[in-house]
Design goal:
about 40% helix; about 140 residues; 5 strands; about 20% strand; alpha/beta; Rossmann fold
Length: about 140
């Protein structure tokens, strides 16, 4: 009797880049409703090191980051991340005036000024479905 073993499904993972522990905890718990794995790192350097792992790179569907961060600018981080993982959708959250302009022309990058947890839920759900389509 032959048995077919199905390949393991790649798990959807959200990477949250946030240096504010309280805000990160709130966002992480809210995002866990939409993805089986939500990982949080404190800064861009940590995020870029993490995505060097093939296991992480394969499962990553969405990265949520802020525009302002220490060490590297938001646009520099997003450009570097997209050069390494062009299939991963990125959501940049910021209320800085004019920050959106710095991401124009970057494929797979979305920008939002929302502070609402409800809006973040809706955005995450939509962007996760985009990530699934890009990797399918």
């Amino acid at each position: 009797m032959l048995r077919f073993i199905e390949p393991r499904a790649v798990m959807e993972t959200i990477l949250l880049v946030d240096d504010n522990p309280l805000r990160a905890l709130l966002r992480k718990s809210l995002l866990e409703d939409y993805a089986p794995a939500v990982m949080r790192v404190m800064d861009a350097g940590e995020a870029l090191c993490l995505v060097e792992s093939p296991e992480i790179a394969l499962s990553l569907t969405l990265v949520i980051t802020g525009h302002k961060m220490s060490g590297i600018s938001g646009p520099e981080f997003v450009a570097e991340l997209r050069s390494r993982l062009p299939h991963v959708v990125v959501l940049v959250l910021s209320t800085s005036p004019g920050a959106e302009n710095e991401y124009q022309g970057m494929q797979g990058v979305f920008y939002s000024e929302t502070k609402s947890t409800d809006d973040l839920r809706i955005l995450a759900a939509r962007l996760l479905s985009l990530g699934e389509k890009q990797t399918a």
